[in-house]
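Notebook, bench 3.
Goal today: get a predicted structure for YlxR family protein from Nocardioides mangrovicus so we can plan the truncation constructs. The sequence was checked against the plasmid map this morning, with no discrepancies at the termini. Length recorded as 100 residues. Pasting the sequence as submitted so the record is complete.
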Amino acid sequence: MVTSAVVRTCVGCRRRDSRRQLLRVVAGAGPDGRPAVVPDPRGTAPGRGAHLHPTTDCLTLAERRRAFPRALRVEGAMDLAALRMYLNRAEPTQNWSTSS
């Protein structure tokens, strides 16, 4: 029996990828009480989720397209600070030095 990987669509670039390659995000509350996009790396948080490649490029695309309120079914703008901080920590830093 062949089992296929679960496939989800990134709300930023709209490319389909396996669930393991994407970061799940959910709607939560920011420090000021406004709706916020909260990372859910384990994929266990309750509520409606959306998926995003864990890169700042896809975050920028999703923000420009206003994809989070639509995907998470929340009215109005959403705070992305927690997600942006998570992605900045998670993305590997690249050393562009050519010296050995």
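Confidence is low (pLDDT under 50) at residues 94-100. Residues 16-90 form a domain with the Hypothetical Cytosolic Protein; Chain: A; fold (CATH 3.30.1230.10).
Flagging this for group meeting.
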